[in-house]
Fold:
Amino acid sequence: MAFVRNTWYCAGWSKDFSRQPITRTLLGEPLMLWRNEAGEAVILSNRCSHRFAPLHKGCVQGDTAACPYHGLKFDSRGQCVHNPHGDGHIPKAAHLRSYPVAERAGVVWVWMGEAEKADAQQILPEAHTGFLQAVEQFSVATGHLEVSGNNLLVMDNLLDLTHAPYVHPKTVGGAPEDSVEAGMQVGIEEDDRSITSTYFCPSMKPTPQLRPLFREEQGDFRVRMRWQPASSLAMRLSMTPCGQADGSGVVLPLLHLLTPIDEHRTHYFFALGRNVALGVPEADAEMAEFARRAFEEEDEPMISACQAQMGTSDLFSLRPVLLQTDVANVKARRRVEALIVQEAGR
Amino acid sequence: MAFVRNTWYCAGWSKDFSRQPITRTLLGEPLMLWRNEAGEAVILSNRCSHRFAPLHKGCVQGDTAACPYHGLKFDSRGQCVHNPHGDGHIPKAAHLRSYPVAERAGVVWVWMGEAEKADAQQILPEAHTGFLQAVEQFSVATGHLEVSGNNLLVMDNLLDLTHAPYVHPKTVGGAPEDSVEAGMQVGIEEDDRSITSTYFCPSMKPTPQLRPLFREEQGDFRVRMRWQPASSLAMRLSMTPCGQADGSGVVLPLLHLLTPIDEHRTHYFFALGRNVALGVPEADAEMAEFARRAFEEEDEPMISACQAQMGTSDLFSLRPVLLQTDVANVKARRRVEALIVQEAGR
Amino acid sequence: MAFVRNTWYCAGWSKDFSRQPITRTLLGEPLMLWRNEAGEAVILSNRCSHRFAPLHKGCVQGDTAACPYHGLKFDSRGQCVHNPHGDGHIPKAAHLRSYPVAERAGVVWVWMGEAEKADAQQILPEAHTGFLQAVEQFSVATGHLEVSGNNLLVMDNLLDLTHAPYVHPKTVGGAPEDSVEAGMQVGIEEDDRSITSTYFCPSMKPTPQLRPLFREEQGDFRVRMRWQPASSLAMRLSMTPCGQADGSGVVLPLLHLLTPIDEHRTHYFFALGRNVALGVPEADAEMAEFARRAFEEEDEPMISACQAQMGTSDLFSLRPVLLQTDVANVKARRRVEALIVQEAGR
Structure:
């Protein structure tokens, strides 16, 4: 499986981690996710080095997790610290692969590559994740979805939001006549660290999702979608009264964090914030429901249907016809390819 | 996948095609089936050339079908005629593969091979399909079934009807003691265009299906099953009072049109006519139910069980023991093989 | 598929065989299991040599089984004895592969390898199977389970019973503090014909399964698990009042007979006897239920979870960390490997 490995992937939201282990497969590897006694998020291989039993089904006691098959105990660095059988000898090789973890603003990041290269500087900057905990400014909903498609197909979907009027006309997109046909302006910005798609629709009707939050008939609608390798997308969506300064109206910061399960499935972690109707439970529920419908009932079926029609082929090998609106996602795919080649030392 | 491609396959009954597109996979290719404004049946690749989205989920407007993902529009020849994004430029390669189609007597035929070789002369002659619309002479029921077996296994089943007394004793076959053991005569005829199996059982009890239509205790039972490459089977079944001329009693014309879905599944389109009880709804319902039971509950489970026990192996590679009654289907298989070799230019 | 073939495998319990054929896949081969008129167990290939139809769906008459597709009849040695079609000629090759069978004490054994090497001397000795029919001494319950794991993983599970306190604390194992941590002694014995694991726990609390049969607070608990190639495991479990001679208390003889379905699934035939509460229906039901829970709800999920985490890889290719308690199963695996190599003539 060809993935960028020397990068930080979202392994889950902070609330997914507790003393009770769960399992989650990332980049083809089954992992055990839990918290040690100090409350630190721990990510270890979920395959016992003895008989490959699933460790998350065992018990956690203090800082150790016990294998449910023969009772070997491993500490939170993956070292076997107890063999209950015979003379208790612990073979040298009896340790689990352990992965560097960093927890920031409610996100647990994991480094699936060479541990010695794990560099906290490369974590998605707080400028993009800070809203998750800025409770005075934003109300936030988070979610998690498994998409039956390669992670790059999900990235393509997010870096080319011109699909919104077709896939999401009743949720997070407007109708074609309100956005695309009304002259939506699409741009792209790029630097060493990121690629950003921008969209501007002056005097657009608010999308169904925005209607309860933005009560005017029309407004200026702006979206920025910033991709940072390997697969973090930070989004900012705003709607202002026509002609007024960006930020003066409704602002929705979003995160889309993609982590490969394997070559044909992807963990899709999403978060949505809003700077209005703070702390209003009905607004929370409505925003979460719009996101669920858009991502789970609209995006996911479309991406998985494309994947199904592509079979196991790589996108470029099928010679897709590319449009101007694919510039951002093609650039991002080229960067991912370069990173994979670089890691392989080719 | 090894299939004859330069031939006409049944893509569906005329009634399967409407303004609302559907998808159907033929010879491994997902297709979109619909009708343009003029009412003509249209068959295009169902994979958008941009991102491989399933086009049948989009909207048809006039003579164009719009992709449900990003709104590209294609006309009924597969040409992209509208890109709603940016400056609207349409890349040269933005067209869908389009397949030659011919509609005759309620059957929609498609040519899956080289379009320039599509030759309407090769369509199954009206002599065999005419009954479908000869409402003065025949009442007709049609059906469609997906068989979990290679198309040649279904063809084998139809070209060797000696299975009928074993598989269908309570529907379309008689009991072994009434047919096989009573001396059923099996023959074979052959010409450049076709191979025909014939069966004659003098003084046989009518099969359960025939009993309501042929009220005598016994009759002369005749069946002709004519195969034309690649996979059209036209059948004629008759029962006359003993000793009387063929055609003087009940005549049932049938069609069995087989189209590969892939190597291990087959579309089975069938039609049954009868020259008696014309326009009697109870007879229609009964005839359709007998066919459904025979094909869906008796043939299909047998063929799919054989396929399952063969795995992915080709029939001949497993060295089957062949009987005299396999002559017709072995001849037909040899012709199919020769056509595949010829198309491959080997 | 790499299996030992020149050996006797359990094909089923005697009660599984009747005049009505059933099908069961052993070592990747679909078989038809039935009894001929003399009541002898018969095992033939379930694939008709004509069109590979599943023979178990046909009819048995006297000593012949008829194919449900075209009516060919085969006798109980697999020879085709009737072709109902044409001149009735029976092609020379029209016979089914037939397998040597031996029925002993309620077990039907089958030899899946070279028939001429089938040697009844190699059948599991009566010393280990006799309890099945020693109704004066033992009450017995039998069962059959399909495990989603390679047969060697099931063998490993049985030859290293140190998993019992972790996987079965509420059924057939004691709690860790009552067995492992209380100093269970594990031994191994070996001869040309077998490998035996032994376990001795002096002064142990009875396991939940034993409590209704052994009413004292503590007792000496002994287990012997004897493996004979390729995959027969005969077990003897006893609990005596502390310090008394082995056999003076409760004795449970057990059989675990493993037959590969394919590389990743295994037929698990088990039998449990007890020398107490003879003929007490409640004790029968309770013993059967304990076994079902232990094997079906505890062992099977653990083995199939290990198999799932191993994918299609062989155990040793994944470089497991081995413990002292793996000595018996590693020795057994080495013997199985040697037998496979020897049969392949490498």
Remarks:
- Chain B touches chain C at residues 156, 160, 162-163, 165-167, 176, 180-181, 186, 302, 305-306, 309-310, 318-325 (CB under 8 Å).
